[in-house]
Amino acid sequence: MKYPIGIQSFETLRKGGFVYVDKTDLVYKMVQGHIYFLARPRRFGKSLLVSTLKAYFEGRKDLFEGLKMMELEQEWSQYPVISFDFNGIDKNTPNSLRDYLNQVIRETEAKYNLQCFETEDVALRFRTLIPRLHEATGRGVVVLIDEYDKPLLDLLDTGNPDDEKLLTGNRELLKAFFSIFKATDDHLRFVLLTGITKFSQITMFSGFNQPDDISIDNRYDTLLGFTEEELHTVFAGSIAELAGALGKNVEETKELLKKRYDGYHFSKRMKDVYNPFSILNTFAKLDMKDYWFTSGTPTYLVRLLGHSQEDIMTYTSGEHTLDEFLNYKADVAKPLPMIFQAGYLTVKGYDPEFEMYELDYPNNEVRQGVITLLANDYLQLNGQAASWVQKIVRAMREGALEQVQKLFTAFLAETPYSMRPKKDQKDRELYFHYTFYLIMRLISCYTVYTEKQLSEGRADCIVETPKYVYIFEFKLDGTSAEALQQIRDRGYAKAYEADSRPVYMIGASFSSKTGTIEDWSIGSTRMDTDSYRSIGT
Fold first, then answer.
1. What confidence score (pLDDT) does residue 423 get?
2. Rounded Cα–Cα distance for residues 382 and 377 (Å)
3. Is 169 in contact with 116 (CB distance < 8 Å)?
4. Which strands make up the sheet holding 81-85, listed edge to edge?
5. 39 in Cβ contact with 195 (< 8 Å)
């Protein structure tokens, strides 16, 4: 099987004999509409979708042989298509966006034998092109714009005054350019804009009829990416081959793929979508790695969180309205929409009565990547977080309690003194809670981790491994004995009374002064007495 990794041309994919998951029934449904906007994370297939639409509107019937589209489309009319791809625009060149727009307009004029309309006003050139194309061909014009937001994202919040100037210029140019859609609406057959995020507060779309935003839409939630049914049918042979390479059976391999690459939800109906880039790379290389996350370091994510008074814990522990995470308001103090639409968070729950959404990491690939990135940055660990996680997970799986204790203490001892807040008790508590949130989220990718709401309270952390269960309670500037007693008093271990695994209850005292664990107490459902150990300073 040939895997179309990096192929964004529908024609190349179809003529080259690459595997194709047929989404053309959804494409046909889409083309019945007029103006659309679609936000999806990078490397999710937006460019291939644009190429597919271009082939359809150009009447390339030959490329759709054997696909669902052939059963749906009867006319196969040819429409004039203007296609823009902002991926290749160089942010370091002041007039690159204007030059590119002019280039596409010139090429379109030449393709349809239209006289060149000379003016320095690129928006005016575009405004005259659309009705002239309609008149010359007798058909409404199709406009496809891929990654419309790249000329903005590349320049956003870099701290460089020159970039800020370019950003303002690009924003105004695109606003004027998009205003043409309203003025030429009678000449348009179909318009699609794709991107990572939708800028709502900078009036990018104020100049033309509001597009139908299908980013969170039940009709098109599986338009890009692979559903579980598609994965298990189209790639059945690939899964079997991967299972052999991993030394697993097919069902075990399916479960590994699900945990690592599944979990994206692009509508309130919570239909699971797998990351296509990671899936294709996994099958091609017969090796499971974090292909999507490592293919592009989200430095702007850390940059945005660095400016914000919020942290990732805030976003994954509460409920949100749709507007809070769907529309980016160009406000670095509120980076949630950017983080969500970039694919680092997804919908994990929906309350229809109050129309509230729960957000979390889509899968282990993203969770591990984001948390490792944030832990290294927040705790200034110089890239040591991943190696520490491997050691702590191995110790937990083996039940090596003394090693677990040493690793926790050493990890926190590596945090620079300058990172520890000194202002007031509230700051110290926030630092404490966020530090342990990052630590436990790091571990959670390799173990079954739950913040279980128990009958008499919520344990700080419960980690389940195949052989052992660990219940953690941390106290800031308290004692480990108090923490351990809380586990007992609130009955956190009762849920495991029938469990055959040993259950270890661990109380730890965290010092805001030293920034590490002061003492550590261990109890067990199989121990008559508790073990207390002072760590010292």
1. 62
2. 8
3. no
4. 81-85, 141-146, 188-195, 35-39, 212-213
5. yes
How far is residue 360's CA from residue 345's CA, in Å, rounded to a whole number? 5
Tokens of 377: 């940055």
Length of the chain as a residue count: 537
* Side-chain-facing half-sphere of 286: CA atoms under 13 Å: 12
Structure-token match 């590349």, residue found: 154
Q: Helix/strand/coil (H, E, C) string of 118-162?
A: CCCCHHHHHHHHHHHHHHHHCCCEEEEEECCCHHHHCCCCCCCHH
Q: Are the C-beta atoms of residues 461 and 452 closer than 8 Å to each other?
A: no
pLDDT at 455: 53
How far is CA 56 from each of CA 11, 144, 336, 445, 449, rounded to the nearest angstrom? 11, 12, 36, 42, 47
Per the CB < 8 A criterion, the answer to whether 370 and 297 are in contact is: no
How crowded is the C-beta side of 381, counted as CA atoms within 13 Å? 23
**Token code pair at residue 149:** 């937001």
Six-digit token string for 286: 């017969």
> Nearest-CA neighbor of 150 among 233, 39, 65, 247?
39
CA distance 325 to 312: 13
Dist. CA 486–CA 429, nearest whole Å:
18
Q: How far apart are CA 154 and CA 167, in angstroms?
A: 9
Has this prediction a pTM greater than 0.90? Answer: no
Nearest partner of 52 among 80, 72, 22, judged by Cα: 22
Please, which residues bridge with residue 335 across strands? none
- Alpha-carbon gap, residue 120 to 57, rounded angstroms: 30
Show the tokens assigned to 447: 């173990």
Q: Is 513 helix (H, G, I), strand (E, B) or coil?
A: coil
User: What are the tens digits of pLDDT across the range 32-54?
Assistant: 999 999 999 999 999 999 999 99
State the DSSP H helix or E strand holding residue 404, giving kind and residue range, or none if neither.
helix 401-413
Q: Other C-beta atoms within 10 Å of 137: how many?
A: 13
Sign, Cα dihedral of 46, 51, 55, 58: positive
Cβ(473)–Cβ(436) below 8 Å: no
**Side by side, which strands form the sheet with 319-320?**
319-320, 356-360, 346-351
Residue tagged 């020159």 (tokens): 162
Alpha-carbon distance of 178 to 385, in angstroms, equals: 45
Neighbouring CB atoms inside 10 A of 185's CB total 15
Burial degree of 42 (CB within 10 A; 0-12, 13-18, 19+): middle
For the residues of 32-81, what is the DSSP string, one character each? Answer: TSSEEEEE--TTSSHHHHHHHHHHHHTT-GGGGTTSTHHHH-S------E
Pull the structure tokens for residue 526: 């199989």
Name the CA dihedral angle for 404, 407, 408, 410, rounded to a multiple of 10 degrees. 160
Evaluate whether 242 touches 211 at the Cβ level (below 8 Å). Answer: no
Residue 10 CA to residue 207 CA, distance in Å, equals 32
**C-alpha distances in Å from residue 39, one per residue of 50, 266, 455, 518:** 13, 10, 41, 48
- The pLDDT of residue 96: 94
DSSP-assigned beta bridge partners for residue 199: 328
In tens, the pLDDT along 84-140 reads 999 889 887 888 999 999 999 999 999 999 999 888 899 999 999 999 999 999 999
